[in-house]
Every structure is written in C-alpha cells, then in structure tokens.
Amino acid sequence: MKIETIIFDLGGVLVDWNPEYVYLNEFNGDRKKMQWFFDNICTSSWNEEQDGGYPMADATEERINLFPKYKKLIKMFYGRWEEMLKGEIGETVEILHKLKRKKYKLIALTNWSAETFPVAVKKFKFLKLFDGIVVSGKVKMLKPFPEIYNYTLKKYGLIANKSIFIDDRISNVDGAIKCGINGIQFVSPKNLIIALKKYGIKI
User: Fold this and answer.
1) φ and ψ at residue 55, rounded to 5 degrees
2) Contact 99, 203 (CB under 8 A)
3) CA 29 to chain centre
C-alpha cells in the first residue's frame, strides 16, 4: 500500500522541549533532586492533564495547595514554559521540508496545551508546512487513546493504512498502530530516514 500521508508528533521529534532547561539551574545542577521533583510534584501525568484541555491556572493553584512548600517551583512550570522550548530539531525539520517537496500530505498530531500552542505557532515557521494540525488541548483528546487518531483520520480524510505516524513515545506509536495506522518510533533523524525507506519513502 503506497503511503500518502505522514503524521508527525511535535515535541521530541520536531521541537526540542524539555523542562530541564529551566529546572536544572534551579536545582543547582542536581539531577537527582530535579528528577524527584518531576516524579512527585510537577509530573508528566499532571502536565498531560493540561495537554488534554485542563486550565493551567487551575492546575497550578491545585498543585500549590497540595505542595505549598514548592510554590515557587510549581509556578515556574507554566510561568517559564517558553524557556523550556529550546528550538526546532533541525535535521527532522529538513526531512519535513523534503517530504513536502515530494508532495506527501503532512499532518501534525500533538499532545500540547491549547494555551501554550500559540507560542509554538509564532516561534516555529515550519508549522506552516503542515496541511493540518491536531492539538490535544483544543480537541480535548489525548494520545495514545484511539479517539484522537480516529478524529485525525476523519477530519482530514486520511486512509489509515496509507498513513504513517511518527512519535518519540512508543505508547503513542502503539496507539496509532491499533487504529490501523503504520507507526515509527522516532529515535533520531538518521533512524527516521532508514525507517521511512522501508515504506518506500526515500529522503
């Protein structure tokens, strides 16, 4: 089956976003203490609730009420969120440009808060290359649940087995595969080029 559409995750694939860029300095370079904070206070599952559409102000206030001792650090998570956006992952963006020139349909499917996504739109010009973008916080659905993949397929008239989904998280890739979409786990731009070749896509 010839591939017509390539669906990209953004964070960790095309965008270098990492809270370490803010917090490592706050913890004076102590990775162990920083990791404890991420594992227990501002956790990835907590952040995903905002990616699913929960208001950041409410989430911040509730977390401070639970952990008042960490008020300053908690407020930083969304207060200094833009500093966590280091920039684009240049080699992957180059791949995106090449796929666009080859006339593939390009879609972005991202777990991202609707409140912060406008910052990314202003910052990253490559987002204009996409024929469509699905932001979890806007549609109030999250990867890896089937609803968001099926929503994306239906919204843009995509055929599942003629599409490839690329994400750095294997759980999200597996979610796409369960919906009949071909999946590639992103490890590096070089590995992505090799993986795309297996589908007859030469970069």
Assistant:
1) -60, 135
2) yes
3) 26
**Residue 99 C-alpha from the chain's centroid:** 19
160 with 2: CB under 8 angstroms? no
Assess contact for 17 and 117: CB atoms under 8 A. no
| 170: helix, strand or coil | helix
Q: With contact defined as beta carbons under 8 Å apart, do 106 and 129 qualify?
A: yes
Q: What is the mean pLDDT of residues 143-149?
A: 98
Are 86 and 16 in contact, with CB atoms under 8 Å apart?
yes
Residue 1 is predicted with a pLDDT of 79
Residue 52 identity = G
For the chain, give every domain's residue range: 5-16+87-197, 18-84
| In CATH, 5-16+87-197 is 3.90.45.10 | no
Mean of pLDDT over the chain: 97
